[in-house]
Amino acid sequence: MRNEHKVLDRGLKLTVLFTLLLAIYTVLFGENNIFKYFDKVETRNELISQVESLKSENKKLQRTIDYLQNDPFYIEKKARENLGLIKEDEEVYVLVNYKKPQTKDEEPEPSNQTKWIDKIKEKYQEFKIQ
């Protein structure tokens, strides 16, 4: 009886040892080991930080959009600049750069600036398309 008891104790100890070694191996080297877990936790924290940053930026942009759509002074300024609109009692003076007359030997300089009337035509076409 004593020998049977020793055999059962030895078997139980080996089973516990094997189970413990298997658990340690799984934690350290298994598919979802502890190192991968910590990497995933770090990635999760970075993503949460990015989400918070994007939410903050989104709120700022939304406030800017609301301001730009509802501020009458800004809307008037943009209408004047981009569309060339004026009030009834206003006069517009267009300043044109004076260029010296060209001689036959000189090539005309290409102009990188678009004329104001061309800008108005472009804006009109954009609004017409919409």
Describe the overall structure.
By secondary structure, the protein is mostly helical. It contains four helices and no strands. The mean pLDDT is 82.
Keywords summarizing the entry:
mainly alpha; 4 helices; rod-shaped
What's the arrangement of secondary structure elements?
Elements: H1 2-29, H2 34-70, H3 72-83, H4 116-129
Write a concise synopsis of the structure shown.
With 130 residues, the chain is mainly alpha-helical. It has helices at residues 2-29, 34-70, 72-83, 116-129.
By DSSP (H or I, 4+ residues per run), the number of helices equals: 4
β-strand number: 0
Helix/strand structural class? mainly alpha
- State mean pLDDT (0 to 100 scale): 82
The biggest sheet, with number of strands, parallel, antiparallel or mixed sense and barrel status, is:
none
Q: What's the N-to-C terminus distance?
A: 97 Å
Rg, nearest Å = 39 Å
Order of helices and strands: HHHH
Strand content: under 5%
Query: What percent of residues adopt helix (DSSP H or I)?
Result: over 70%
Low-confidence residue ranges: none
Principal-axis shape: rod-shaped
